[in-house]
Amino acid sequence: MDLIKGRVYKFGDDINTDVIYPGKYLSITTDREEMARHCFEAVYPEFLKNARPGDVIIAGKNFGCGSSREQAAACLKHFGISAVVAESFARIFYRNAINLGLPVLVASGIRDLVEHADAVEIDIEQGSITNVKTGENIPSTKLPGFILEIINDGGLIKHLQKRLSISTT
Amino acid sequence: MTIAEKILARASEKKAVKPREIVTAKIDVAMSHENADVVLRAFSEIGVEKVWNPERIVLLFDHRIPAESEKTALTHQRIRKFVKEQHIKYFFDMKEGICHQILPENGLSRPGDVMVGTDSHTTTHGAFGTFATGIGATEMAGVWATGELWFMVPESIKINIRGKFKRYVSAKDLILSIIGRLGAAGADYKAVEFCGETISSMSIASRMVLTNLSMEMGAKVAFVVPDDKTIRYVKQRTDEGFVICLPDKNAEYSQTIDIDVNDMKSMIACPHAVDNVKPVRAVAGLKIDQALIGSCTNGRLEDLEVAAEILEGKSVHPDVRLLVIPASRNVYLQALKKGHIETFVKAGALILNPGCGPCLGAHQGLMAPGEVCISTTNRNFKGRMGSSESSIYLASPATVARSSITGVISEPQAAD
């Protein structure tokens, strides 16, 4: 996978899935554009004004804690977020992101490496994150091969189609 | 090995497993509620025609019942159609209640099994010794297609509880105090094992409060070590066999915590985080607008019983709306027979149909800006139950019942 380059959109600790994607929109299950229109809507409405497709979310510990709603990962992907890097993730969000093909990386010290709106460069396969401005670099936890494969295949659905030899043509 | 290690070893057909090892486990029960709508779309996108085993999939409605919108009605309709097409054996339409109550009631939560659910509070079923955890919808589609899933073997935390609760102090106060101590990420990716004399004498319903709320400190799974009480409960409800997995004496834990509940006070989780826990006394006197007794955490018979005891012959404060939601039809019927429902109605409560109610902010009792709700549910995230300018406090059924009478947050022991 190529390097991911993007602008930082920074959050704090314990950003929960109700904050990322409010429960009142859970009946939206397929409309990707509509899902993307509600990212962080209730608590951080400025996100929808200021964030841009291609941005990288940088967060503190326990990002995505709370409910199993897949829309929390899906809305970020459909918005165009190119990766989420956090000090740590809650496990269901982490798995959901991988299954949807949204790169998620654990990097201890990430919140000190970059500021809001900095440019970052992420090498998923090598497990490294660089602040473009300062040149500073920290490692991220390397993803096991089979997880990288799911992300590289574009998510679990495409990965399973490949594994189960299902023709989609 | 710990319980988690034993079950994952069994389910992945290995002699032994160690923490951080990644295994592929066979799934015994795969549960989804309304979000099965997302699952079945992902499933059809994969392109597999038939689910791996229609007798292992459980589908039901509890999150938005009856449908609050046409969109949800369509969701229900699509799932019912899928149930018929795929011959899904266990389907509970909207009359039964909340998933984390009706699976145990129907003998589908069994010791030693691996259960996955597209609901984060699936950890609840660990009260029966089940390795039960929440997953997302796309991942569930993969389970429907293959019947298996990868897991990283978790480290385990052992929590040993001893002592006897004071009057009106309960499992809810205990687990809130544990979450306050460990923090919202304190058990991230880990398994939690509850044991000790207090747990042995605890009812099944109270045990489920502990495993349900363990999710709020990040636990992957939470267990109550199965005992005679567990086996009796499960055997009364199913003929299906199960393997009881108990922790070995030399099992290794990443952390062992000992708690004495003799002097434990009524506790409350303050806005806007479940780990923002204080004694009720610290916020007593705060005015409330709504009180809610119910949910997969505290909507069971013993919860309604204690609330009815406190509300008997009293009236809900005129400035407060009290919502009571039995966790299941079965719980509702028992509460009717025992006269609790009559007590609530006389006191001025609104009784809602068994289901998730307003807990997740979908319908049935949302809040306006500036309003305060005291609730027996499991999450108080900002904006969860309506306006992002409203606040939720989480407490025991006794604390909520007492507060609904006084109109302010009150310790249940305090005379009104």
Descriptive overview:
The complex is a heterodimer of chains A (169) and B (416). By secondary structure, chain A is of the alpha/beta class. Chain A has a single domain, classed as Aconitase, domain 4 (Alpha-Beta Barrel), CATH 3.20.19. Chain A has 8 helices and 7 strands, in the order E-H-H-H-E-H-E-H-E-H-E-E-E-H-H. Chain A has helices at residues 17-20, 32-36, 46-50, 71-79, 91-100, 110-113, 145-152, 156-163; strands spanning 4-10, 56-59, 83-86, 104-106, 119-123, 128-131, 137-139. In chain A, strands 4-3-2-1-5-6-7 form a 7-stranded mixed β-sheet. In chain A, helix 4 packs across helix 5. Chain B has 2 domains: 3-259, Aconitase, domain 3; 268-406, 2-Layer Sandwich (Aconitase, domain 3). In chain B, 32% of the residues lie in helices and 19% in strands. Chain B has a 5-stranded parallel β-sheet, sandwiched between helices. Chain B has a 5-stranded parallel β-sheet with strand order 16-15-14-17-18. In chain B, strands 10-9-8-11 form a 4-stranded parallel β-sheet. In chain B, strand 2, helix 2 and strand 3 form a beta-alpha-beta unit. In chain B, helix 12 runs parallel beside helix 15 (397-406). Chain B starts with a helix and ends in a 10-residue tail after the last helix.
Write the layout of secondary structure elements.
The complex is a heterodimer of chains A (169) and B (416).
Chain A: E1 4-10, H1 17-20, H2 32-36, H3 46-50, E2 56-59, H4 71-79, E3 83-86, H5 91-100, E4 104-106, H6 110-113, E5 119-123, E6 128-131, E7 137-139, H7 145-152, H8 156-163
Parallel strand pairs in A: 1-2, 2-3, 3-4
Antiparallel strand pairs in A: 1-5, 5-6, 6-7
Helix pairs in contact in A: 4-5
Chain B: H1 3-11, E1 22-26, E2 29-32, H2 36-46, E3 57-60, H3 70-86, E4 90-92, H4 99-105, E5 114-117, E6 131-134, H5 137-146, E7 148-152, E8 156-162, H6 171-182, E9 191-195, H7 197-200, H8 204-214, E10 221-224, H9 228-235, E11 255-260, E12 267-269, E13 277-279, H10 280-283, E14 290-294, H11 295-298, H12 301-311, E15 321-325, H13 329-337, H14 340-347, E16 350-351, E17 372-375, E18 391-394, H15 397-406
Parallel strand pairs in B: 2-3, 2-5, 3-4, 5-6, 8-9, 8-11, 9-10, 14-15, 14-17, 15-16, 17-18
Antiparallel strand pairs in B: 1-7, 12-13
